[in-house]
Design a protein that fits this description.
The protein is α/β, with parallel strands linked by helices. Helix content is 38%, strand content 17%. Helix 3 (65-77) packs antiparallel against helix 11, helix 4 (88-100) crosses helix 11 and helix 13 (394-405) packs antiparallel against helix 14 (427-445). Bound molecules: pyridoxal-5'-phosphate (PLP).
Length: 450
């Protein structure tokens, strides 16, 4: 089907493809031929161990026939229905998402095409429900690349497109212990005090902005590309109670952290916090088909019982994507992959700690479940990053290149390396990838000042 000689794929792509997130001339695409389990192969036969689940999304691993067959079967039966229609997969997928949602309390589901429009719809729902405009989000966050989601984003991907077209977004600081603004002189502060300082900071901003103007606080439950920042105990519960106190809604962005990534169905489950709205994508179908969703408490949906929700998408609840979602969730359940991710959590943490002990360029490691990061520095004492903010460095480029050349695919973001493998990964496969990391870190070690 659609055959093209392997050696023509790259030249033809270079001629006609417009690449995202890149200067066109700088892109070095991998031409992928096949993928199975935790591996994929390029057209030259090179095998890569996938330490990034492609785009942090192939949670169940590659080439699972149970999902592929469901997609094929759905395409044969009924590939599409209009947004105001329903069918078996729309009913079943909504129920499944409701069942696995935190406390099974987010019982109404709006399906979107991906994470960005899930966040945009969540913001619209919150604005409609509260009648307020403002949305508070964090600086170290990414919420998607459509105009509104980008406005909500805190990181430099927003700055590139300013002025933002969506008014009313106010950013606040993240509880990022390794580089905590408030605790440079007392880095060993107790967790409860640390948490309190960041919640006080947030409440102060709420006061300055006027609580009566704020519709929602939108946060990644565990921050993704901006540093796998794991909230300290009490932090998400603190946001929950600030929302309740001031009549704001809590929106948890679980696009990257959801569907078992952290060792629970959703990251908020670690702290028993139930947001009012939760957005998801990526692991919802493990990227076998594009899909996002907003799950919400019934009171929010009920607000729109008489008031119309004035928004929509031609491809909302696309049956082929919903078939993928149902099959994917069934695989996560049947194969107990959420439990497996939880069991692998300490294994990944031990391997990360070992790297930290062996390499002076490792400044910090963090992980929760199979969601990990290595933060590389030139100097452990000053914490000078191995690449500047929003940039790269020859060492980081060489580090990633070494990994790729030795069959390890991973995401390098500024001065960090993300470890986000498919949830099916075994201890042996993790160890294989860490062996390559151990070798690659010699490159960054050489750049250390002490
Ligand atoms: C936390 C988070 N939210 C939202 C998005 C946007 O999702 P999408 O690329 O599907 O629009 C991403 C994508 O990486 C993400 O990591």
């Amino acid at each position: 089907m659609f055959d093209l000689p392997d050696d023509e794929i790259l030249p033809l792509s270079r001629e006609h493809v417009f690449w995202t997130w890149s200067a066109q001339a700088a892109v070095k695409p991998i031409a992928v031929k096949s993928a199975k389990g935790v591996h994929f192969w390029d057209v030259d036969g090179a095998r890569y161990l996938d330490f990034n689940s492609m785009t942090m999304c192939v949670n169940i691993g590659h080439g699972d026939l149970r999902v592929i067959d469901a997609i094929v079967e759905q395409a044969r039966r009924l590939p599409y229905t209009a947004p105001a229609m329903t069918n078996n997969v729309r009913a079943l997928a909504s129920r499944l998402v409701a069942e696995i949602s935190p406390g099974a309390q987010l019982t109404k589901v709006l399906f979107t095409l991906g994470g960005a429009d899930a966040n945009e719809n969540a913001i619209k729902l919150a604005r409609g429900y509260t009648g307020r405009l403002k949305v508070l989000t964090r600086y170290r966050s990414y919420h998607g690349a459509s105009a509104g989601a980008l406005a909500a984003t805190g990181d430099p991907r927003r700055v590139a497109w300013e002025p933002s077209v969506m008014p009313g977004v106010v950013h606040f600081l993240d509880p990022y212990r390794y580089r905590s603004t408030f605790h440079r002189t007392n880095p060993d502060i107790a967790e409860t005090e640390f948490t309190k300082d960041y919640l006080n900071h947030l409440e102060e901003i709420i006061q300055y902005e006027g609580p009566e103007t704020i519709a929602a606080i939108l946060v990644e439950s565990v921050t993704g590309t901006n540093g796998v920042i794991i909230p300290p105990d009490g932090y998400l519960a603190g946001i929950r109670s600030l929302c309740d106190r001031y009549g704001m809604l809590m929106i948890a962005d679980e696009v990257m952290s959801g569907f078992g990534r952290t060792g629970r169905w959703f990251a908020v489950d670690h702290w028993d916090v139930v947001p009012d709205l939760m957005t998801m994508a990526k692991g919802l179908t493990s990227a076998y088909a594009p899909l996002g969703a907003v799950a919400m408490k019934p009171k929010i949906a009920a607000h729109f019982d008489e008031v119309p929700f004035r928004s929509g998408l031609t491809y909302t609840s696309h049956p082929i994507s919903l078939a993928a979602a149902i099959a994917n969730i069934n695989v996560l359940r049947q194969d107990r992959l959420v439990e497996h991710a939880a069991a692998m959590g300490p294994v990944l943490r031990r391997m990360l700690n070992d790297l930290g002990e062996a390499h002076p360029s490792v400044g910090d490691v963090r992980s929760i479940g199979l969601f990990g990061i290595i933060e590389l520095v030139r100097d452990r004492k000053t914490k000078e990053p191995m690449a500047p903010w929003n940039s790269s460095s020859p060492e980081m480029i060489a580090f990633r290149q070494y990994c790729l050349e030795h069959g390890l695919y991973l995401e390098v973001h500024w001065h960090t390396a993300l470890i986000i493998p498919p949830l099916i990964i075994s201890e042996e496969q993790l160890a294989e990838g860490f062996k390559t990391l151990d070798e690659a870190l010699r490159i960054t070690d050489k750049a250390c000042k002490r």
